[in-house]
Write a structure and sequence with these properties.
Aminotransferase_I/II_large; 2 domains; pyridoxal phosphate; seven-stranded mixed sheet; binds (2S)-2-hydroxybutanedioic acid; single chain; Aspartate/tyrosine/aromatic aminotransferase; two-stranded parallel ribbon; alpha/beta; Aspartate Aminotransferase, domain 1; 394 residues; 47% helix; Aspartate Aminotransferase, domain 2
Length: 394
């Protein structure tokens, strides 16, 4: 029977991880997959996570199942982190998921359950796995223009025009902050226009927020999500703890469904529980428990926030160093956008051929669409990258 299966296309980001591993050059630089690295190239376990793990080892008394939606303490802590007091807590249904990808997948499943005809409007470009999951699930996608190849900023008028074509029963997928793959983000007045468009069309927003704390700070990065959630009748929010808690392999995420009242919440919560049960039953708990412990303990929380801020400011300084190095070497300001972008990624806006040349000639790995992971750099590799970019003629 299985001989009928078709070869699946390899995930571009994960393929790159493998190619990097296999490259024997010791000068190689990995700017591919979105994993944070410190100045010595390690992906550290955050201090607060280590401390919480130590505590958990001593105090955990059972590994029995949690609930289908995970530990309610985790939902509370994360709803609070993402939404603050933007909406009443009793309007938010939430379920823990295996990572942010799990939350995205469950969100799409909820959309399909509610309206099998729903179209999902996706930014062009978006995280490739959004497209891959939607395709796998047979959900219709409609790309909306997002990135301006000239300015390397958001093509906002075009975006607004395109999302304006969504209808009630459709979904507009938005990146809450730190747009992946471009690094180009909306400002708050543009977010207000997006909200006005959603209010006009009646389309349901779904927000993917995987990098809270990596852009302008924890609250600033959640501001758009809070604005949207508090301005429309319903929305979905897929949050990830992989990056901001550095617990990638623990698969820790939360899907939230915000509605208008407690009775809609009950229906949403039942659906989230049901979908978890169908797809994987109980969500993983270890990472969620660590996050809950950190967010509900003043001193662990303060230490986590301090370390997250160190990571954020390190990425910002790498952005600035790269932009100024490129300005010096190229004699032009055309790379200034790198310092304006936020989050882990920036899209250089060059061709796949140039990206391949960087890999072949210089051992520099970035995704074929010219997305580079800023956190893969350090102060010694920034000048090497800048020189390579100018040498290949980007
Ligand atoms: C990325 O975009 O590199 C990350 O979100 C990791 C992944 O799963 O693709």
């Amino acid at each position: 029977m299985f001989e009928t299966l078709k070869e699946q296309p390899a995930d571009k980001i994960l393929m790159l991880m493998q190619a990097y591993k296999e490259d024997p050059r010791d000068t190689k630089i990995d700017l591919g997959v979105g994993v944070y690295k410190d100045t010595s190239g390690n992906t550290p376990i955050m201090r607060a996570i280590k401390a919480a793990e130590g505590k958990l080892l001593e105090t955990e008394t059972t590994k029995a199942y949690t609930g289908l939606a995970g530990d309610p303490g985790f939902s509370d802590a994360m709803v609070n982190l993402v939404l603050g007091d933007a909406v009443p807590r009793d309007t938010v249904a939430a379920a823990a998921t295996p990572g942010g990808t799990g939350a995205v997948r469950q969100g799409f499943d909820m959309i399909r359950s509610a309206n099998p005809q729903a179209r999902v409007f996706v930014s062009d470009p978006t995280w490739p796995n959004h497209l891959s999951i939607l395709k796998h699930m047979g959900i219709e996608m409609v790309p909306y223009r997002y990135f301006d190849d000239e300015t390397r900023g958001v093509a906002f008028d075009a975006m607004l025009e395109d999302i304006g074509k969504a209808k009630k029963g459709d979904v507009v997928l938005l990146h809450g902050c730190c747009h992946n793959p471009t690094g180009a983000n909306l400002n708050m007045s543009q977010w207000k226009e997006v909200v006005a468009s959603l209010q006009k069309t009646g389309a349901t927003p779904m927000i993917d927020i995987a990098y809270q704390g990596f852009g302008d700070g924890l609250d600033a990065d959640a501001a758009a999500t809070r604005l949207v959630a508090s301005s429309v009748p319903e929305c979905l929010i897929a949050a990830s703890c992989s990056k901001n808690f550095g617990i990638y392999r623990e698969r820790t995420g939360l899907l939230m469904a915000v509605s208008q009242d407690a009775s809609a919440r009950k229906l949403n919560q039942g659906t989230l529980n049901y979908l978890n049960r169908q797809n994987f039953s109980f969500p993983p708990d270890h990472g969620a428990r660590l996050v809950t412990m950190i967010l509900s303990d003043d001193s662990l929380r303060a230490d986590w926030m301090a370390e997250l801020e160190e990571m954020r400011t390190l990425m910002l300084s790498l952005r600035e160093q790269l932009a100024s190095e490129l300005q010096r070497l190229s004699g032009s300001d055309r790379f200034g956008f790198i310092a304006q972008h936020r989050g882990m990624f920036s899209r250089l806006g060059t061709t796949p051929e140039m990206v391949e040349k960087l890999r072949a000639d210089h051992g520099i790995y970035m995704v074929g669409d010219s997305r580079l992971n800023i956190a893969g750099l350090n102060k010694n590799t920034v000048p090497i990258l800048a020189k390579a970019i100018v040498d290949v003629g980007i």
